[in-house]
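Hey, quick one: can you model this chain's 3D structure?
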Amino acid sequence: MVTFPSFHHSSSGIPLADWPLITVDDISLSGTDTALHVVERVKGNWVEGSFSLSIDGIESSPIPFDSSAEDVQAILNEIALVAGNVVVGQSSGLEGITWLCTFPGLGNVGDLVPNSDDLVGDIGIVTVETISQGSDPLEGKFKLSFNGISTHPISL
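Sure thing. Here's the predicted structure for all 156 residues.
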């Protein structure tokens, strides 16, 4: 078996091309039923270009397909609605890159809407999934009590 697990990958680990099949020269084989066969078990793929994300109709700058978490975070923080309040994590695998975007302290923000018109290739698609909705920030006052003694109300 011949594989190219780390050959011609982008900086994020995504394969950049589908290579032609290897050819075999079996002219010097001898014996009964000698033959070599080349079989493609997993097709390679490629993607390039950029995509963008919108929040409440405000579109981000183009995001290169192989951007780091820091790059995606910086681009999303350019959107005034969420500026300075985006945290992005990243993981990569054979299916592509996953960025996890959270908006701490903002409550429930609008949905991220992808635009993948500028992505090209076999896997040139962006999907967005909401894992959990945000919530309104905690507000109000509370008291601490111990052995029957309470504090004055403490504001958050």
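One thing worth noting: The mean pLDDT is 80.
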